[in-house]
Specification:
The protein is of the alpha+beta class and about 100 residues long. Helix content is about 20%, strand content about 25%. About 25% of the residues are buried.
């Protein structure tokens, strides 16, 4: 099962920091994403992109996890030579994480 099957995302970026929120469609799936979508796993998932720390915040009342990823945008949106380093691209990629693999 892919993360996109049970959740959607919202993003933001400031400087060289990307912020991705993952929000479940159904509150019953919140426990699954808490278990499967850890900060360490997100860091590994973006190992070629995120050079800094990944911090996870839990928002159980919203059925959401918020990931703040430092040194994630190639120096910042206006400084990077990447074609599209914005958080929107990163969040869509994260939704393809396979929850069946650890």
């Amino acid at each position: 099962m892919k993360l996109k099957d049970i959740a959607h995302s919202r993003t933001g970026d400031k400087g060289n920091i990307s912020n991705i929120s993952v929000i479940v469609y159904d509150q019953k799936d919140y426990g699954l994403i808490v278990e499967k979508v850890t900060a360490q796993r997100v860091k590994r998932f973006f190992c070629d992109r995120v050079k800094g720390e990944v911090v996870r915040y839990e928002l159980p009342q919203l059925g959401a996890l918020n990931f703040v990823m430092y040194d994630a945008l190639g120096g910042g949106v206006t400084r990077s030579l990447d074609l599209d380093p914005h958080g929107k691209s990163l969040s869509q990629y994260l939704l393809y994480m396979d929850l069946d693999q650890a």
